[in-house]
Amino acid sequence: MARRRKAVTIKHVAADAGVSLQTVSRVINNEANVRPQMRERVQQSIDRLGYIPSIAAQRMSGSRSYLILALNDRERTIEDWRARQGSDWVDQMLLGGMLKCAEYGYRLIFELVDTHNDHVERELKAAIAALQPDGVILTPPHSDNRLITSLLSAHNIPFAQIGSEGAGGGIPLIMGDHDAARLATQHLIDLGHSRIGFITGSSEYLLSDWRTAGWQAAMDAAGLPVDGLSEQGDFTYQSGTAAAEHLLDRNPCVTAILASNDQMALATLELARQRGLRVPEDLSIISFDNTPAVLHAQPPMTAIDQPVAATTSRAVELIIASKRGEQLPDGPTIVPAQLIERGSTARPAKVSA
Amino acid sequence: MARRRKAVTIKHVAADAGVSLQTVSRVINNEANVRPQMRERVQQSIDRLGYIPSIAAQRMSGSRSYLILALNDRERTIEDWRARQGSDWVDQMLLGGMLKCAEYGYRLIFELVDTHNDHVERELKAAIAALQPDGVILTPPHSDNRLITSLLSAHNIPFAQIGSEGAGGGIPLIMGDHDAARLATQHLIDLGHSRIGFITGSSEYLLSDWRTAGWQAAMDAAGLPVDGLSEQGDFTYQSGTAAAEHLLDRNPCVTAILASNDQMALATLELARQRGLRVPEDLSIISFDNTPAVLHAQPPMTAIDQPVAATTSRAVELIIASKRGEQLPDGPTIVPAQLIERGSTARPAKVSA
DNA sequence: TTGAAAGCGCTAACAC
DNA sequence: GTGTTAGCGCTTTCAA
């Protein structure tokens, strides 16, 4: 393999502009103590030569690598990927994060780590040592993993905790779970439903509780009972089927169900079909997350959109702001989720008990 | 911001093992000229201290950055991403490539560049200068962009060309388009179809021609006519609708249609529904790519799976092999595509003319 | 406000 | 087979 072609370095720019390396460095990094005229001259040389700093060299001397690490759960991510059921979490994260990174001259690197495993620490340490990222984005269920958060804190690496209230010292971001569940429930109430069932998510995820609480808040505010209307699920299709079965068996008068994710909502839809219940006439269904799968369901599903891209994008901004020593928001940053109305919700055909 | 915590460097390992830096370096890189016993001793120090080389430092001195760049078309990728229709190309690329990279200690970085734009060169140069990647993965429509391929050649960076026959000096990989189209057509012929329509893809993509040729080859081999059975599409849903309309108007006796991608196949399905044609009884449909959208169609669509993950994975392997000076395959590497049988294909109800 | 010198962690080239 | 030296491209520190 021939040697890499000689690239334009800071030296070439310095020579071209007739200044010291240091002055060029100051211009690149937008530092103070450069006269406008000098800055202008250097910038012209940079443009003329098409100079771009090497991030490897920048990292070697300085404190920035211009790399942000996005961590996801290995098992779950690979599973979704293999299944090809249309879960686009990673896709949305990548693009939301990547585009924002690009604005600031950063790059996003994805890494998978095992959650239920003592390798976490070793894996994360290795990634940190190899890449020395300027920041890390944690997603559930890693967001509140003390092993991870304390390791990052010890290394002084700013990190975002998506779907976390912020225990652990990172930058917490929440995808509007509570409000979205509340509004979705309210939407059903406005349509005339009063017996509204809820299928919860896995208790391993904090957001499961928030979603449940949002449903409950809306029900309480409307003075509607919730007893026996909540059923435990774990985000899998199977658990959705089981939960929906129990729910409908116990409460024949249920006219609407809010499921804590798309898979469980799709399972509910299928069960309704099997039981001869028309959707939405006999049963309204709202799903959480709005992955592409629910778009193609029959009928297309009314869903709460999980703003994964917007949240990742915001996480990148906050990490970079933190790096720059800027003031960060006090509490968790809440990125609002929206309700997308489609065909799986309508006024109830029968009046519920 | 406090200074980054002191990390374990090659010096610590050298001191711990009582050898020179160079010997440690040799062990890390699995080079020759280290006695097994010495290698063992150094390895123990590495393990004990939890040493991981800094890729920034490795890049600074050596010739490897352990970074591979995956390039996609900006416009198309952002469009798909925003649409959230379930195109999982990026997702499959990322995971297929990332996991393979991880096996070799590499990382994959995604970058979007404009195709129809004189910025291509500037953008790519910037990415190369900043990251100095060890390899680049090109996807259509970049794969045969001379501006890009010549730039990479000039920089001596090995690059994979997915969906290309290899003009430009890179490593060509093909996702079995020709054979897959042939086999899918054959499958329809075996079912008893003889009037089999084909909707082509955009001529901007070489693979469009391969897919068309595969259909034609199967038809020819079976002695079936193809006149008037091919209609031009451009991969959009709209073009699929138009093409299917023409096809069915001109050939009422068509009993099966093979569409060059999923969106056009879905458009064909919808048109069939509007015209009161039952699928698959009156019209069999096979789609190309097998993105998640076709899974949820009614009926679920028989599709040719595009092996994006496997191809990206292979691309990474070949790039790394090339870096190591290993012998590469002669012609294009063909990653076979498979036919996934679902509900949109069956024996024709009527006998075609 | 600018420049010179030192050094980040590692590998290439060469000496032993 | 192993160690020494020089230097990658940049920023930090300190001097001017």
UniProtKB/TrEMBL annotation, chains A, B:
One of its GO terms (molecular function) is DNA-binding transcription factor activity. CDD domains: HTH_LacI (cd01392), PBP1_SalR (cd01545). SUPFAM superfamilies: lambda repressor-like DNA-binding domains, Periplasmic binding protein-like I. The keyword Hydrolase does not apply. The keyword Cell cycle does not apply. Keywords: DNA-binding, Transcription, Transcription regulation. InterPro entries: HTH_LacI, LacI/GalR-like_sensor, Lambda_DNA-bd_dom_sf, Peripla_BP_I. It holds the Pfam family Peripla_BP_3. Residues 8-62 form the HTH lacI-type domain. This is LacI family DNA-binding transcriptional regulator. It comes from Pontixanthobacter gangjinensis.
